[in-house]
Write a structure and sequence with these properties.
Blueprint (H helix, E strand, L loop, with lengths): L1 H131 L1
């Protein structure tokens, strides 16, 4: 029986050694996986914190965009009012130019009539002088 027991004991010891080695590797692998899980969770936490910062920045930009959009609409409205006023002023200026041209024509006509009348008066005065002589 010793012949059978010794190999069986050796075989059992070898199996126990293999089991111990497997358990040791299993514990090491479990520790590696736990470390990897912890690192991944830490990275997720970092990314979530960064995401919150980015979301805050996006919200701030959206507020700024809304403000600028409102300012742009206000400026557009002011521009339209100014353009309308400029158009009216342009029409008034055009009307004033026409009136000024008409007044210039009237003045030139009146000046010609005045010269004609002056010439007639001079002619009449000369004619009267001749008659008196």
């Amino acid at each position: 029986t010793t012949r059978l027991v010794e190999p069986a004991q050796k075989s059992q010891k070898a199996l126990q050694n293999r089991l111990d080695a497997f358990e040791s590797e299993s514990v090491q692998e479990k520790n590696r996986l736990q470390s990897a899980k912890n690192a991944a969770e830490a990275r997720v936490d970092e990314l979530l914190a960064r995401l919150r910062v980015l979301q805050t920045q996006i919200d701030e930009h959206n507020v700024r965009i809304t403000t600028l959009t409102e300012q742009t609409k206000s400026l557009q409205s002011q521009l339209e009012v100014a353009q309308h006023a400029a158009k009216e002023h342009e029409q008034e200026a055009s009307k004033a130019r026409v009136e000024a041209t008409e007044a210039r024509v009237e003045l030139e006509t009146a000046s010609r009539r005045a010269r004609v009348l002056e010439t007639r008066i001079e002619n009449l005065e000369q004619a009267h002088k001749i008659e008196l002589e």
